[in-house]
Amino acid sequence: MIKDSETVISSNADMLSNYIESMKNTDIKNFNNINLSPGIHYIIYDENRNIIFSNTVNSIQITDRRQNKKLRNKDSFEKLNGTLSTSRVVDVKGKNYYIFVTKDFEDIGDKIGYIAGILFTISILGIIVSLISGNFLTKKLLRPIKDITKTAKEITSKSLSKRIVTNGAKDEISDLADTFNLMIGRLETDFEKQRRFVSDASHELRTPLAVIHGHVNMLYRWGKNDAEQLDKSLITLKSETENMNRLIENLLYLAKGDNEVLSIKKEEFKIISLFKEIVEETQLSYSNVEITYNSNDQLKVYADYSKLKQVLRILIDNSIKFSKDSAKIMINVENKGREVSITLTDNGIGIPKESLTKIFDRFYRVDESRNKTTGGTGLGLSIAKQIIQYHEGRISAESKLGEGTKINIYLPQLIYR
Length: 417
Description:
This protein has helices at 2-21, 64-72, 108-154, 172-223, 227-258, 271-285, 305-321, 368-374, 380-390, and strands spanning 40-45, 51-54, 78-80, 83-92, 95-104, 267-270, 289-294, 300-303, 327-336, 339-346, 394-400, 404-412. It is an alpha+beta fold.
């Protein structure tokens, strides 16, 4: 870079010298400005060091030492105040004229040092800013994770209702918090199912166990010598153990459904064949029951035959238990576009309006005395609802006291083939 600048300055100095020497036959005062390379400045002095011509506002002070140095070395160069300069001496009509040619110049070493200093300063500032902002961002980003950790430590089987509060942002941390909340929600549901199962089972088993325990004590005290008491107690024990067996089977059935291990084996069949079978079985068991059905002979469904039959059996048994002298039951099936509708209507004693939304709850009894006389466990409709839900359907009830009850079952279109 320095050599290039020296070459440019030297060539322009020679150009000026040659031009002035060509003016020997004319007065130098007639000197006209000539075109030089960009960035080239020059000053022409006379012997008395007066400026004759210049294309720059800056002047160069001519000292004896500088003048002698220039005269001794034609191609000497000098760096001063960011410029590189050289000079020439030209004789015109016996008079010496001094030509000084300059070019702005920045030493590459100084420039690199300056840039290096700037870069170093910027680097230090960048590191400081990065540390401060990084610390701030790290705390901000880790705060939700700390909240998750804190909440996770606080959660026990008695505090599963706790949830992580998110700020509504859509990012990975929020997704993690939402996933954690979903997991805790499922755990809460599972714990509630387990708690309810244990509570329901212990509550329902307490009564028959108390009855059995009482009759065993009576047998131990008097039954050995009292044939009538022995016979009565044995009948009661048989009835209670059957009820307990039925209750335990129903509880286990519901527990399988809660744990999502209930086996559903779907098949394609004409629904009228199911109705024919269940009507024949009902009429064989109950002579005073009038049961009819109305269905399209060609209507086929894709469902679990035995489970759907179990639902109908539960509904028919309830209609018979809670009907008047003779039960009349009507089953109607309709294809309603996107759904199959199955309705079962009876002429029973009816259900109070306030109980309609509760009859599918486990162990719910409209009247406790009803189930004591009929031997019900309060789980039948819960099982029916669970089976229908496993078929992705729904079940509901309509009823009027003294007139009867209608159970509505809706199965989705996907059961068609």
